């Protein structure tokens, strides 16, 4: 069962944004008080952060799939949806985030350093946020944007001051156990370390860390053995210590050839490629040679024999025995001096500056390209805003589709399509990949919006917001009274003219007709008012 993992593939997906709400506010005496749909909440993001309590990527080896929570949808009465919580994943200090093809996305060094792996989606706007003087009552809302899905590679590069390198069974684990409190596996039979080990060494007032990486063999830079898997752990070390076995029983090995082969593998392995703030190449790091196992008589003689040749190359040489601890104290103080020298000569990286990159004058925010596939012509539109607008559009709602057409037209997409030679009926693709939306283009003037009876989103019941003034009420009352008086006078005129006295054939007056024998009581005066009344 794996206990140490320094490279994993992380499958992360951000949370989806909540959908917006389409709602009309209702209360007593205000049955249609305008839109009140709230905006959906934003989806949570997946973030990797350096955690000092984490020393391995083992957790992501067993659970590589991580998904942030989604935002909730908006609600009526202007209530906004809750945003999803960000998912923060702790990683060791020195973790590098890369794409699958090796492109470096972030170098996480320092406690608290973060990188957003998969951002969450935006929440959809409710119809209250979509309302405008021309669109008083939108009957639609925007959908929440899906969260991004991303597959990244996490590589752990151990942060140490000194790296112990050499062939398997050269005594590296014994050495780190002798000079520090680290307790790696040590045995009296040949084997190689399977995982890197770290130890802290105190030499006088200086303190530094030492890393013991698995043994290297010829061809390690090409993937042979375990060297390629762990060479990344020496990229951040300031001092490289060649631990050479002077008591090896293999006939084709000697200290000089071992040193040459290890140096050749380091030269082939670049390291730190693509990481910002570049470091000193491995071939230019401070070096030291340690001739180990001099407690064996033949090994001591071999060490005395090759030492002049190594010093002639400009290398500092120490003869030690990790078993008897001979020569360890001078070695640790020499290592402390090299580490302090590297720290003094290393220029500290300046603080990150805030760089403002304003939008270019001619940057339209999208691109329109003319494409042809299988003899079929189409136009592809790429851009952050158009692609997000398409993802947030509910195509089952004609008003929402019209709103999308208006937004694209205002952005200048139609002019760009005309400039590329597009005509009505041509195929247009917005986006790329499987999430692209394909439709037959019709310019806005031909979409039939003029047949809707008015501008999109309007409601005749909500357009008249004026209230009559007192003067208007008095005038309306006077006009109504004058109309009643005129109607009453017209009735009496018709009665006087005999319009209502339609006698039957027998000569009897019609029912309800005025009688002529009643005298003046039944005849009106000159003003039209009945006499005697």
TrEMBL record:
It comes from Pengzhenrongella sicca. One of its GO terms (molecular function) is GTPase activity. Residues 507-522 have a biased composition (Low complexity). InterPro entries: G_OBG (IPR031167), GTP-bd (IPR006073), GTP-bd_Obg/CgtA (IPR014100), GTP-bd_prot_GTP1/OBG_C_sf (IPR036346), GTP1-OBG_CS (IPR006074), GTP1_OBG_dom (IPR006169), GTP1_OBG_dom_sf (IPR036726), OBG_GTPase (IPR045086). Residues 358-443 form the OCT domain. It holds the Pfam family DUF1967. It comes from the Bacteria. GTP binds at residues 166-173, 191-195, 212-215, 292-295, 321-323. One of its GO terms (biological process) is ribosome biogenesis. An essential GTPase which binds GTP, GDP and possibly (p)ppGpp with moderate affinity, with high nucleotide exchange rates and a fairly low GTP hydrolysis rate. Plays a role in control of the cell cycle, stress response, ribosome biogenesis and in those bacteria that undergo differentiation, in morphogenesis control. Transmembrane segments: none annotated. Coiled coil: none annotated. This is GTPase Obg. Mg(2+) binds at residues 173, 193. Belongs to the TRAFAC class OBG-HflX-like GTPase superfamily. OBG GTPase family. Monomer. The gene is obgE.
